[in-house]
Structure formats: structure tokens, C-alpha cells
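Internal ticket #5521
Category: modeling
Description: The requester needs a full-assembly model to guide mutagenesis choices. All entity lines are attached below as received. Residue total reported by intake: 1168.
Assigned to: D.W.
Attached entities:
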Amino acid sequence: MKDALFRRVAGDGAGPYDPQEYRIEEVFDASCMKDVQSEPDHRNVAINKVGIKNLRYPVTVLDRDKGQQYTVAAINMYVDLPHECKGTHMSRFVELLHLFRPKLSLKTFSDILTQMKSHLDARSAHIEVTFPFFMEKQAPVSQSIGLMDYTCRLVGSINSSKVDLVSEVRVPISSVCPCSREISVHGAHNQRGMVHLRTRFKRFIWIEDMIELVERTASCDVYSVLKRADEKYVTERGFSNPKFVEDIVRDIAVELKKDKNITWFDVSVENFESIHNHNAYAYISSGGQPEI
Amino acid sequence: MKDALFRRVAGDGAGPYDPQEYRIEEVFDASCMKDVQSEPDHRNVAINKVGIKNLRYPVTVLDRDKGQQYTVAAINMYVDLPHECKGTHMSRFVELLHLFRPKLSLKTFSDILTQMKSHLDARSAHIEVTFPFFMEKQAPVSQSIGLMDYTCRLVGSINSSKVDLVSEVRVPISSVCPCSREISVHGAHNQRGMVHLRTRFKRFIWIEDMIELVERTASCDVYSVLKRADEKYVTERGFSNPKFVEDIVRDIAVELKKDKNITWFDVSVENFESIHNHNAYAYISSGGQPEI
Amino acid sequence: MKDALFRRVAGDGAGPYDPQEYRIEEVFDASCMKDVQSEPDHRNVAINKVGIKNLRYPVTVLDRDKGQQYTVAAINMYVDLPHECKGTHMSRFVELLHLFRPKLSLKTFSDILTQMKSHLDARSAHIEVTFPFFMEKQAPVSQSIGLMDYTCRLVGSINSSKVDLVSEVRVPISSVCPCSREISVHGAHNQRGMVHLRTRFKRFIWIEDMIELVERTASCDVYSVLKRADEKYVTERGFSNPKFVEDIVRDIAVELKKDKNITWFDVSVENFESIHNHNAYAYISSGGQPEI
Amino acid sequence: MKDALFRRVAGDGAGPYDPQEYRIEEVFDASCMKDVQSEPDHRNVAINKVGIKNLRYPVTVLDRDKGQQYTVAAINMYVDLPHECKGTHMSRFVELLHLFRPKLSLKTFSDILTQMKSHLDARSAHIEVTFPFFMEKQAPVSQSIGLMDYTCRLVGSINSSKVDLVSEVRVPISSVCPCSREISVHGAHNQRGMVHLRTRFKRFIWIEDMIELVERTASCDVYSVLKRADEKYVTERGFSNPKFVEDIVRDIAVELKKDKNITWFDVSVENFESIHNHNAYAYISSGGQPEI
């Protein structure tokens, strides 16, 4: 038996990956080598997911305002393995990723998943892509421009021909404690928090829209550049808008429930309490759909 | 309204926490302070989990051979919050934990969960406790003794009166690649891997039993002290026992399916491949029961 | 040549490690095995540090109030290797640690380092021990008791017969921004911060003393249990005591400079700004002594 | 007093940051706000470093083969603060970084450091930039192409007018144990390791050159794509080239000492031992120059 490689057989390979342009072919004589992975297995145990984990790769992701942005992802790719097969072909995940790298987004996830299923002879396929995402953001008074970073994650699965996508954002926020404000003569404890929102949807949604939805629910959102007039603004806005983790997670849930495009969500808020060395946490799930 | 504290009203507090010995009482005049958390909420959104996250605490856990061992845990504690309540009482989690600290194990989890539900006026409660666990282990030839460390996690939930427990172990192993061994004139690539096993069960199970089950399925288990004669042994044992991630995850699944006490499991193996900078991964779930 | 092991030859092994009670002996016939590590090396390059890294071990550390406390450490141990030796004997580090485990503190560091140098035939030895340390702490008004956790690190080196010790504490604090307070009509942004203090000293110092010194310089210190009356207290205390990272790092430096027992220090403060997703940082070194 | 902002006063801002094109100006009336940072300080303690830490930013770095590549960095920026000044102006670091972002490399570090010193009225300035760096790499037999990722770090300081630069690479490698190979009938334990190399130099050096130097000293280098013929090659190459951590760190030191362009280095190798749950470690410093 010979070893297989992806080879381009048509086109120039410049645009996004077109499966018509490639085929898997045997490119060198590996007939002397036993293909252990392809041997039969007799334990009668199917494997839900097998593949590669934590591969770092530069990727291009869709950007609502600029068309696309460059970033770096940590990528996991899995397929299922039927009970009668001994092993999967790990190198094909990386080869396939290398071909798809130019265009990675919710829009191309179905293509990647379909190709994974096909090239790995599988019935289901999974991909998880985690990356920092950047948005330009103006300070509220001085209009000074900086970049905010958000850790995002796209998760896709295909099962038979049904594709399931989940879009995740982690959004740093500022929260002011209502209890502390109420009972104290001056001031109120406040802190950085992190919101983790996961959504399923009917039509494509922009990462940026989910980030902005979360930021609107905070006591105040956070910025990378703040001049003194901005600092005054965000301090006063937060103080006039105190919220518990319970309030923030609920306000996000209320917004998401209004959106008919969102078919499922869960959301957590974790506050890095300024008065403790542990965190406050709240979590809401819309229920209904199982986790990916 | 006054603020509440746990106070011992009977007994000497020396043994494990006995709820008969404590009551929540109002211990100082906080009547001038508004209790913002206890106000009604009108958003009509219940919260699945609210509480504290990542609190480090010294704990005592059950040890099969020595009765108990001292370790340090990172602890999360949550309850649900009905739609009509504005906030929970975060400080009560820490107070309750402080009382239970002397004895933390699967055996006492039901008590803790019941107390959480009661003292926080909740319908469900959750606790997650992650800690390093140590076992003495003799080198296979020299019998030299060292300690192995395993990251473990106990997760408990109570819903109405039904308690759901999950026991998790992370076990480092050594794996030798069967393909590499088969096709190479000499040697075979091998590496450290990490097995993550989660189980539900009918009767109490020892963490140690789960760890030993996993270690038996590896190409070879790992040790903290190995003299040269041991190193020869583990090298040769691994080489004569090559396994893919697929093999290890399946062999663990086969063993668990034989055990009538295990009602649910999932298990993953992640190999820190010595020939790549990414990892190989395989995952099997017994299916059926939802995740905790 | 035969393989060597630590064996107890006197005493009962119950107390702290007594080198008189142990000797390294050849315990089994390893004469058929080549001792590759002991071969000569011809590259003419001495190695500054060689050993083991990130070994987790349960340890007992000194406690000012209770005598001792149990915790779990991550341990690094190194020796130098002269240019003419090919390799060191990695297993001896773990064996030696296993013997010393009952008593690990600044007070026993000199003994461990001396034994490492001796048993590894080295001219210098280094040990780094990182662990969570717990202190009981009463809430300021309700007197409710909880445990605070601090990540600590003891670092020791021996060179010829000179022992160099560094004691490190990481102390979480709360800081209130003076600028925000000054320019805002209401409130002031505040946040959790982390102080990292390293000291060299003439006479033994308690970890607890260093922690308390740091906590006194914060806008307010942090607690694990705070009832509402406490929350009012810490909010108001922080608000009346606003400090930049620059102020906190300086106030710590001023205190340390007054202490004739401290021969060297460096200290950093990192604030997890509630208005940004990045941190504010300040660092002062007393200069003079080189880093360990 | 008014607040200051960077404003472009000439040019189109399209190329790399040109200080001639920008000036700091007062852009809005902040005269009602007290400038707390600019007040005098009376503690008589200078601060070595004050600034921002862990700001994530997309950056463009020099690429030996392609001119440049896009990646994402975590950035720290500090200046010193004289004893008589109360605070620094944190927002200016981010503003300055935003202007320099298009071109970040060892070549532009002197410019950034000079600007930091100037705009923050400081006598010294420091910048630390950590980022994943990618190199295309062909499998040794099949020539299959993948991307390898390396975590790199550029560190620069300016003191008076003297600039000090350090270039750091972290390179994953594969190592085969010589002892295990020698004493075992079949096989030899091997594992992934991580080399951390830091260098100072006379003339500009490519990150890629340092990475390739390290990879040549391993038992075998690692790849992202390996077909079976490649796997046979890397297994056999590693087995015929066994090395301890001591050997690898020495071989790197020997190569660096030959290079007259390298004025200082230190290098560590950490092996994630496949037979232990702890790591083997070796470290060599060329000595002489102090750490940055």
C-alpha cells in the first residue's frame, strides 16, 4: 500500500480551497511499510472523536468593517472512528487545514467539515478554532482610538449531512457592585469581569454583534486607551449603573431571547472581585439544545 | 434586616461538620443597611448557577491506604436562583465551606450539597473540587519509592433530592507508537500522554482504583523515581506494548464497560507527540447520561 | 558498575532527614548496564544548572501561629555539572526530596542544598519550591473567619559553602485609583491587584510577616469572607485610601528600607485594571545584589 | 492643565511611524480636572519600571523569506519614574504602540524605545513583545509542507542613549535518551522537549537562524505534517542520534560560542520525559552580561 498526499490537479491554488482542484493521491512508494492504522480492530468500541489538538496556525477571519483580519488560532480537529477501524490518519487533518487556511470563518466551516468527513472516511467531523479577535474602539470622550482584544471560538460539527455551528466570544467588562454602592458612604467596589457567550443561530451572525451586545449590558465596557476625560466618564457611568453578576447575565439573556435569529445560547459572567481573591460567577443556559 | 452568620450552638466543632451544631443567626446590627440581594427581580429570568469560583482551600481527602491525605483544592460552588430573586448571598458559600473543610470526599458531598441548598434557599446546588492527589509508587525493579501526582476532580449536584456525583482523574502515561515501531528499523517514537477519565457509579469508588485502571492500559505507566534497571524495564515494556491514542482510549472503555458499578463514563487521551508540536487526541463517551 | 540507592542504615526515619542515618549504596547488580551519564565529556562546556523541573509534592511548611501547615508544592532542583562529566543522576534528586519531605522550610534549605551538592558530586546546588500558603483572617467588622491563600516561593542556592536564600510572596490586594476618584463626581475605579515581593535577609523571616507588610500598604486588603458590614468597611476604607500602582510599590519599598534585617528586595505590583483589558505595573528593586 | 493626545500633523500615516509626522497636543479642555499623576512625590523612592502589561495587539514581524508575517503579540511597556514624580501617563504607552504597530521588529525597537523615553519624559524605557512565529517546513521524505509555530520574544531597553536588545526563541524538539537506548534490548524512551534560547548580538540576527541552529542540535526536529515515510525517517534519525538534555544544551552552546556575532546567550532545554510526570532540565549561560 502506498501513502497518500493532497495534490493540486487543477487551478492555481491562489483562492480559497476548491475541492475540485485537489485529490488525494499516492505520491511515493511506501509499499514496503505496513499501514498499521488501516488494520481492522476487534474490540467492538467506536470512538466518538479522534484527531489533533492544539495546533497553532495563522488564520484569516471575517471582519464586519474591514472584510477580514489576520490572527493566530489554536485548532482542534476530530472525526469519529467506526468500531472496526484501528486508527485514523492524523496527518490528513494538518494537510487539509493547510489548504483551508486562507479563509476561515463560520461561512467556510461547512466546507471544511464536509472535506474532513470525506478525506478521513468518517461519519462525523468536528473543528474548534480559538483566536484573539481585534476591534477598533474609540474612547467615549476624547475619541482616542485603540484596539480591544476578545478571545473568540468557532466550533463546528457535521453529522450525516447536518451541520451544527456554535460561535463563542469572551468579552471583558467592568462591573460596579450595587450592594457596596448602596451601603457605603462613598464609592463602591468594582472590578474587571469576563463574559463568555456561546450562541447557535439560524442565519450568519457577526462576532462583532455578539461582542457589542455584551458590552451594552455591563456597568461600563472597557477600553484600551482612556484619557482623563474618558476615565471620568467611565467611572461615573459605571457608578450610575451598578450591576451584580446576576444582573449582567440576566440582561444578556433578556437581549438574546428577543433575537429570533438566536436558536440557543448559554452565557456566564465571572467577576474578578476586587475585595476577594476568588471570583463571583453566574450562568444561564437557554436550555433545549444539547452541547456541541 | 440584619446580616447572618454561621455560629456553633452545640458540640465542640472538632469533628466533621454537624448541621445540628450550627445555626445561621443575625450577629450584629446591620439594620441600617439595605439588603440589595434580597430585593425582588422583575426580568423573569431564572439563573442556572450562581456562586463563587476558584477559591483555593486546604482540604483532606480520603486515601484508600492511609485513611486520608492533606492536599489543596480549587473550589467552585453554585446554586440556582429563581427568577423572582435579585441576588444570592455569596459569603455563605465560603462560610459553609469553612465548616466542611475537615472532611471533603465523595462520601460527604451529599451533605455539603444539602446544606448549600438549605442555607442559600435554592432548589439545586453544585460543587466542583479540583486537587492534586498523591500515591506512593514503587519502581518496577529497584522498588525505589516515590510519590506520583494526579490531578483529580469531584463534581456534585443536587436537584430536588437527587444527588449526582462525578469522579474525575487525570493520569499521566507513556505511549509508544505502533506505526513508528512497525515501519522503523530501530526504535519507535513515544511520549508522555494524559488520560482524563470521568465516571458516574452506583456505589462509592476509590480514586486510586480509577487511576490504576488507567495505568494498566498504557504502553507503560510513569514513575517519579526510576533507577537504571527500572528505566530498562519501562523502555522494554513500552516497546513491547505499543499503542495509539485510539488503542488506549478503547482499552479503558472496554474495562469500564465490564464494571457493573460504573453507570456512565467518558474518557479522553491526549498524547504530547514527540514528533510534532501538536497533540494526538481520542475521546469515547458511554453516552446515555447527560453531563453534570 | 552498580546502581545506587539511598538506604537507611540507622535511626527510625521518623523525624526530619538525618544524613547520618542514610547512605548511598549499590543495591542490585546493574553491572551489565553501561552508565552513560558517568562517561567523560569532551566538549569543554560546563553546565550551570541541570536537574528536574515541575515535580509536584506534598510538603509541610512552617506556620507562625500553628507550628506547621500542610500544602502542595511544585519543585525544581538543579546542580551544576563540570565540563568533564557527561550527565547528572536525575533520580537522586527525587530520592533526596522524598527523604526531606517531612520538613521543608527556609530553616532546612541549607541542609537540603548541602545534601544535593554532596550526593550529586556538584559544586553548586539550587532548589525552588512554589506552594499555596494559607492564613486565617477575620473580616474587619463581623469577625467572620475565612482562609486567605497566597502563592509563595522559597529559592535556595549553595555555592562552595555559601548559601543564598530568597523568600517570595504573592499577595492579592485591592487598589482604588486616585485620579479616577479625584476627577469623578461619584465613585472611583478600583480592582484586584497582585503584589510580588522577593526578599533576602540576615535572620530568618516569617512568610506571614512579609504578607502582612504588603497588605498594610494596599488601598485595602482582600478577604475570603465579607458580610455586608464588612463590605461597607472595605469599600469606604479603599475609597479613603486611593493609591496608584506607583504608590503601593513605593510604600512597600519604604517599609522594607526601614527593616535592617532585609538585605535585598524587589517588588512589583500588577493591577488588573477594571477599565482596561490590560494591566498596570510598577517595579522597584533595591539593587545591589544579583538575582538568584 | 489640559489632556494630551498624539495627533498627526504631516504625512499620510500610511508608512511606518515617523515621529516628524506627529506631535502630542492638548485636544480638549480638561482644565477642570486635576492631573494627579503629575503631582510631586515626597517619598524619595525612584521606580525602576512602570507601565502596562499583557496588552494583546496584532503585529507585523520581519520574515526572512517573505519579508513580513502577521501575528498577534502580548506586549509589556515600561519606563522609569524619578523619585520626585507621583505617576506616569499610562495611556501614552497604548497610543504610541498604536502608531508603531505596522512595523514591529528588532530593527524598529530603537525607534520605539526612543519615542517612549521622549513622550513619557523618562530616562529609561523597556519593551517586551511575545508572539507566535510561523515557518513553512517540508517533511524530510514526502516533502509535504506544513507550518511550524515557535513562541518568540523580543526585549529591548534604552538607558541614556544605549540600546540593549535580546532576541528569544522557544523551539520544540524531539530527544531520545542515550541511557535508555544503551541499556534496553529494544527501543529507547524519547519525548518532546522545549529549548528556550536568548541572545544578544552585534548585528541584526534573524529569528529563523536561531530556530534552525537549535533544531540542528536535537535528536530530531519536529514537524507539523509527517507521512509514514517521514515518520520512519524521524524515528530512525532520532534513534541514531540519542541526546540527554545535557548534550543538547551543550551542543547549542558550542555552536553559539563559534558565532562572533553573538555577544551573550543563555539557553535551557526542558524535556517532558515520557517516563516521568516531571521534566528534565539543563541550563547554560555564557555569563558576563547582566540580564535585561
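Resolution: model delivered.
Comment from assignee: The radius of gyration of chain C is 23 Å.
Ticket closed.
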